[in-house]
Amino acid sequence: METNIIVSGFGGQGTLFAGQVLAYAAMDAGKHVTWIPSYGPEMRGGTARCTVTISDESIGSPLTRNPAIVLAMNLPSLDMYEPMMVEGGLVIANSSLINREIEREDLRGFYIPAAEMAEDIGNPRLSNMVMVGALLEAEEVLPLEVVKKALEEHLPKRHHKTLPSNFKAMDDGAAFVRALS
Amino acid sequence: MTKELMKGNDAFAEAAVRAGVEGFFGYPITPASEFLEYMAKRMPELGRAFLQAESEIGAIHMVYGAACAGVRSLTATSGPGLSLMSEALSYIAGTEVPAVVVNVMRGGPGLGNIAPSQSDYNQMVKGGGHGDYFPIVLAPATVQEAIDYITLAFDLADKYRALVFIAVDGNLGQMMEPAELPPMRGLPEKPPEWSVYGAEGRDPNILTSIYIDPPDEEVTNIRLLKRWMEIEKNEILYKEYELDDAEIAIISFGVAGRICSSALRTAREEGVKVGMIRPITLAPFPTEAIRELSKRVRRILVVEMNTGQMLNDVKQAVGGNVPIEFYGRIGGITPLPDEILEEIHRVNQNTEDIADGQEKVQWLERLEARIERGDQ
To answer: What residues does B178 pair with on adjacent strands?
Structure first.
């Protein structure tokens, strides 16, 4: 079983970090995993995306044309990946910045107002963790508790004061999806 | 030891530290810059030398100097930087001192771009500098292999007083993957006998690449060639995939090779008897293994992220035994597993002979059709 997840958005939205949190958790859960950014000369404001591949077997390609899961943090990301996704794929869409519905009928989609939810927690930069929480509720990628533990273990100590709000962001994202299903 | 999730460039750099590198000299260039950044922090912690030179030319000459003094040293760069280093690389080879150069390849020629590529195969394997010399070239495909082969690179460099390249691409430099680092090695107590470390009480060692008298240079060339023949005999490495009953064989290296391994797995599930040889030493090249393989498969598919540089070495090995096909993406584009899968199925069904050179003509037609479709 191999799952490809693409996290995509603007630079500064924490897309690369969200992917890393999933990658650390996958490793801690004993899975094979790769994380690869689409790197370019752009910094904040440009496109930032990464591909996370989680597998029970050793991983060949760290890249895929047809992802199974997309965390679309903004509209250009949804526009780019919706046509590419595998049949029956899962989209977690940040509806704070995406003003359209998913067009493909074979895809499963959840619309998460991640920016507003992050604002409610008191830090707009937590929208990535809201999206991660939503993903983990929508699909059994990894248990939420494993991801929280991974965040705690791999986040540098100097950032540990942000752990409670990160956890809350994940919990809120998960609860939002639970309420929809 | 437990596995850690490490970024390629950081992992390569820490592997070099643990292999006992005492001098790092470099100049930043994407997609290799994290290597230098990591060393800038790490080397001073250990009281070892880190120096950001004024240019790649300065950096490689510092590697040359440190190597002459018997110190394990290396640099990391990308294509344009490697071009600037060419002269000194030839001097290192001519002086017969060990050095390791990591090349995180990007799209070219010229300034090109910073996207992953394998277009420096010839530059490294065939030697970018002047004169008859033979660098060892290692091409890892995973972060773990990169760690392992950087350690090996230093051992080979010391054993043969050789120039060793680590050929990776921007994908491997930038990606994160769980990997295990080796324990920290102790540093040698004294420099190697041949190095220049002060000649009190003995005759001085002389290290040079100047042999004004042609007979002296000829003897040197013979020594270098014989040493290379030893390397060819002892040090060839490659990885085999599903070759037992294979009718079709892929030859591919580095990240292109691991992408092929994904396509290979799917093709096997779909009933295609396909296998692969992934050369790990691009030089010395696994010529004999590929020749033997070519006697028992129907067809060979070479996959690279360049216009077919390794293809020539495969052709030489195969010697016309079976038709060879080629597929590559170029300019900084990484081929994806579905593209390779399509190629495997096509090659599996193709029974036509291919005249020498036609494999590239046919590949270009397919590639241009793909670009035309807007299918990146």
So the answer is: B5
Provide DSSP, B64-99.
HHHHHTT--EEEEE-HHHHHHHHHHHHHHHHHT--E
Residue A53 near chain B (CB below 8 Å): no
Identify the CATH number of the domain in which residue B263 sits.
3.40.50.920
Residue in B with minimal Cα distance to A41: B114
Burial degree of A43 (CB within 10 A; 0-12, 13-18, 19+): exposed
Residue in B with minimal Cα distance to A34: B177
My answer on whether B223 and B270 are in the same domain is: no
d(CA B263, CA A63): 12
Chain segment B69-97, per-residue pLDDT in tens: 999 999 999 999 999 999 999 999 999 99
Note whether B90 and B186 are same-domain residues. yes
Q: Retrieve residue B33's tokens.
A: 């810059």
B135 and B217 part of one domain: yes
Q: ipTM score here?
A: 0.93
Q: How far is CA B259 from CA A43, A48, B50, B114, B337, in A?
A: 28, 22, 35, 20, 6
Q: CB count, 10 Å around CB of A93? A: 27
* A40 in contact with chain B, both atoms CB, cutoff 8 A: yes
Whether B114 and B256 share a structural domain: no
Q: Average pLDDT in the B270-278 region?
A: 98
Q: Which residues pair with B105 in a beta bridge?
A: B169
- Reported as type and span, the H/E element at residue A111 is strand A108-112
Q: Which of B232, B248, B253 is nearest to B348 (CA)?
A: B248
